[in-house]
Structure formats: C-alpha cells, structure tokens
C-alpha cells in the first residue's frame, strides 16, 4: 500500500478513537498518565517509586478526593502537585480513568 494512503487511514483511525470521548484531549491525558504518572508509579501503574494506583488499590477514593490528590499532590512526599499542568476537569478525567479505566 502506498505510504500516503496508509497515513490517511491512520489519520481516520485516530479521529475515530477520539470521537465520543468526553474530553477532547483524552488521548493526551491518557498519555500523560502512562508516561508522567508512570515514571513514578510504574508503566503499568502497579507501583514503583510511588504506590500501586490501579483501580483495586484506589477503592478508598471517590473521584473528587482522588482528583484533589492529583491536583495538590501529597505534601511531604515525592507525589507532586499537578495543578500547574492540569485543569480541574483534566484531574477529574484522570481520577475517573484511574478508578474505572483498565490501565494494564
Ligand atoms: C515524582 C514521582 C511521582 C509522580 C510523577 C507521580 N506520583 Fe503519585 N505518588 C508518588 C509517591 C511517592 C506517592 C506516595 C506518597 C505517600 O507516601 O503517601 C504517590 C501517591 C499517589 C497517590 C495516592 C495513592 C494512595 O493509595 O493513597 C495517587 C492517587 C497518585 N500518587 C496518583 C498520581 C497520578 C495520577 C500521577 C500523574 C498525574 C502521579 N501520581 C505522579 C510519586 C509520584
């Protein structure tokens, strides 16, 4: 298949994956969780420098409390505040993703 046709198909697939997502940049947020959060919590989020943040490990949180942890960090620990980088709705998206998504 010619390369330019492949690129068109990839562009269409990218668009389809985004359609229907509640947050327009869900793809970017998911990448941030994997790469930035993953740099401490492990690529699969099962723990590293930071603890396991897969859904079963976060059952004691609701979305609101969890998004506050993301925004404000945990003072006195290596868990940084993300408020400079994320809006409240971004943090809620991430909290919801961590609680209900299937990061693996
Ligand atoms: C620089 C390393 C680092 C980065 C980057 C980081 N964390 Fe953390 N995180 C930690 C550490 C260390 C702790 C444990 C703090 C403690 O001792 O309570 C923690 C704790 C947490 C907790 C609390 C877990 C619990 O069981 O109470 C959550 C939730 C969390 N991080 C989510 C995130 C998310 C989401 C991101 C990305 C937006 C992120 N972290 C990025 C280091 C990091």
**Which spans have pLDDT < 50 for at least 5 consecutive residues?**
6-21
Number of helices: 4
How would a textbook summarize the main sheet? none
CA-based gyration radius: 16 Å
Termini separation comes to 33 Å
Choose one word for the global shape: globular
Going by helix content, strand content and strand pairing, the class is: mainly alpha
Give the DSSP E fraction (strand runs of 2 or more residues): under 5%
The CATH class turns out to be: Mainly Alpha
**Second rung of CATH, namely the architecture:** Orthogonal Bundle
Helix content percent band: 40-55%
Report the mean per-residue pLDDT as an integer. Answer: 83
Number of discrete domains: 1
CATH topology: Cytochrome Bc1 Complex, Chain D, domain 2
Secondary structure tally: strands: 0
Question: In CATH, what is the homologous superfamily?
Answer: Cytochrome c-like domain
Task: State the order of secondary-structure elements, H for helix, E for strand.
Answer: HHHH
Instruction: Name the ligand types.
Output: heme C
Protein name: Cytochrome c55X
Signal peptide: 1-19
Pfam families: Cytochrome_CBB3
InterPro entries: Cyt_c-like_dom, Cyt_c-like_dom_sf
């Amino acid at each position: 298949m010619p390369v330019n046709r492949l690129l068109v198909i990839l562009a269409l697939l990218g668009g389809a994956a985004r359609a229907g997502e509640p947050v327009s940049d869900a793809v970017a947020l998911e990448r941030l969780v994997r790469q930035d959060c993953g740099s401490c919590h492990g690529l699969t989020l099962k723990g590293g420098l930071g603890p396991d943040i897969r859904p079963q490990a976060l059952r004691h949180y609701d979305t609101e409390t969890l998004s506050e942890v993301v925004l404000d960090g945990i003072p006195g620990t290596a868990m940084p505040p993300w408020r400079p980088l994320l809006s409240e709705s971004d943090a809620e998206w991430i909290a919801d993703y961590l609680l209900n998504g299937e990061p693996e």
